Amino acid sequence: MKCPYCGHLDNKVIDSRLNKESTITRRRRSCLSCDQRFTTYERLEVMLPMLVKKDGRREVWDRQKMVIGLEKACEKRPVSCDKIDEFVDEIEKKLQDYGSKEVPSKVIGEWVMEELPRLDEVAYVRFASVYRQFKDVNEFMDELKGLLDSRDQSKADGTS
User: Fold this and answer.
1) Is 21 part of a structural domain of the chain?
2) With contact defined as beta carbons under 8 Å apart, do 132 and 146 qualify?
């Protein structure tokens, strides 16, 4: 592992910890040349299906793109980076279980739209406004009504 401070390749691991799901290893390291400390994360690399975009292009799944999109939707909201990471972890689990070598990006968008209201309703509305590409305020209002109706239904069912 290359030291981010001096570029030296030799370092020692001071501490290792797993996240709750035991899917990511966090390691604190110390450079043997400059004694600076830094953190690395190890994540199991799994083969995820290719995304098929609306225009037919195929792209490799990019976790960071989803994280950035959710961070924008959750900007200035009480949603931690850990919650966003957990959210993306769940999407990746669904991708692993999808059972095909390709998945339409629309499917992933719908998964996000289904789960995002539980993370943050304002983030959901922000994400929906970009994802659904509303043409006018009436389409936006219809989406809000749907969100409110599903929230009211959840409360009536006692599942909120």
Assistant:
1) yes
2) no
Tens-place pLDDT, residues 41-97: 998 767 789 999 999 999 999 999 999 999 999 999 999 999 999 999 999 999 988
Each residue of 8-30: pLDDT tens digit?
Answer: 999 999 999 998 878 889 999 99
Distance CA 124, CA 144 (A): 10
Instruction: Reduce the DSSP state of residue 37 to 3 states and report it.
Output: strand
Is the pLDDT confidence value at 160 over 60?
A: no
Asked if 92 and 24 sit in the same domain, the reply is no
Number of domains in the chain: 2
Residue 123 belongs to what H/E stretch? helix 121-131
| End-to-end Cα spacing for the chain | 45
Q: How far is CA 78 from the centre of its chain?
A: 16
Q: Could you list the residue range(s) of the whole structural domain that residue 21 is in?
A: 11-43
H or E segment and range at residue 43: strand 37-43
Indicate whether 117 and 153 sit together in one domain.
yes
Residue bearing tokens 């409360």:
155
Q: Give the sheet arrangement for strand 11-18, strand by strand.
A: 11-18, 24-31, 37-43
78 with 151, same domain: the answer is yes
Q: If we measure between CA atoms, which residue out of 50, 51, 64 comes closest to residue 105? A: 51
